[in-house]
Amino acid sequence: MSTARGPVGGTVDLEADPGRAAELCTRAQARLLAAVEVLADADVRRASRLPGWSIGHVLTHLARNADAHARRLAGALDGQDVAKYPGGAAQRARDIEDGAGRSAAELVQDLAVSQQRLEQLFTACAAAGWPGRRLLGGAHYPATGCPAHRLREVEVHHVDLDIGYGPADWPAEFVAWELPGLLASVPDRLRSREDRAAVLAWLTGRGASPTGLRLDPW
Questions:
Q1: pLDDT band of 10, cuts 50, 70, 90
Q2: What are phi and psi of 71, to 5 degrees?
Q3: Under 8 Å between Cβ of 31 and 158
Q4: What is d(CA 141, CA 21) in angstroms, rounded to the nearest whole number?
Q5: Which CATH class is domain 14-170?
Q6: What is the DSSP secondary-structure string of the chain?
Q7: What is the pLDDT of residues 19-60, one digit of tens each?
Q8: pLDDT tens profile 111-136
Q9: Which residues contact 159 (CB under 8 A, 6 or more apart)?
């Protein structure tokens, strides 16, 4: 049973509710796959919204990220604490660069296979009662948080592809889960005391919506 108290304005803790997160993630992956199946070779060479990354880079990252979460969940089923990327950040970057130049058909097929494998592991983990609540795999969240964190990757990077899917298309439950955490990160990401004061003034109704703010990456 979901812990959500409604999709708008309620409490949504998808990291603590892997079953619901898996449902949302499966739907998000289906939307993503349907959107990219029509891409041609010229499309995947285009720049994405991420600096220095083509659409091919983003699709490769999404496929390897699905593999990474599958790796953690498969490990949890065996009681093993497994990292997402055995080779760390260097392997992640190398895999993305090596795969980005493939044809559209190869990129989409790779994504489809990786997502299907992950969804199979969602089913297996659900049947096993979502093991791995104490297995961190070198990350800051347990294996049971994988469906929620995969959902984040799919929803955010679907927008980054710049192929017609925007923030207004994000599901309400995803926004309700993600927004509080990002809001909590804002003070540390603002670059000056003046920017922090401007945001505080706006939030307390004592200033206009601030413009020109620069946030460090999240």
A1: low
A2: -60, -45
A3: yes
A4: 14
A5: mainly alpha
A6: ----S-SSSS---GGG-HHHHHHHHHHHHHHHHHHHTT--HHHHHSB-SSTT-BHHHHHHHHHHHHHHHHHHHHHHHTT----S-TTHHHHHHHHHHHHTTS-HHHHHHHHHHHHHHHHHHHHHHHHTT---TT--TTSSS-GGGHHHHHHHHHHHHHHHTTSS--GGGS-HHHHHHHHHHHHHHHHHHB-SHHHHHHHHHHHTTSSPPP-S--B---
A7: 999 999 999 999 999 999 999 999 999 999 999 999 999 999
A8: 999 999 999 999 999 999 999 888 88
A9: 49, 165, 166, 167, 170
For residue 113, give both structure tokens: 């296979």
Query: What CA dihedral angle connects 174, 65, 93 and 171, to 10 degrees?
Result: -20
What is the distance between the alpha carbons of residues 1 and 3, in angstroms, rounded to a whole number?
Answer: 7
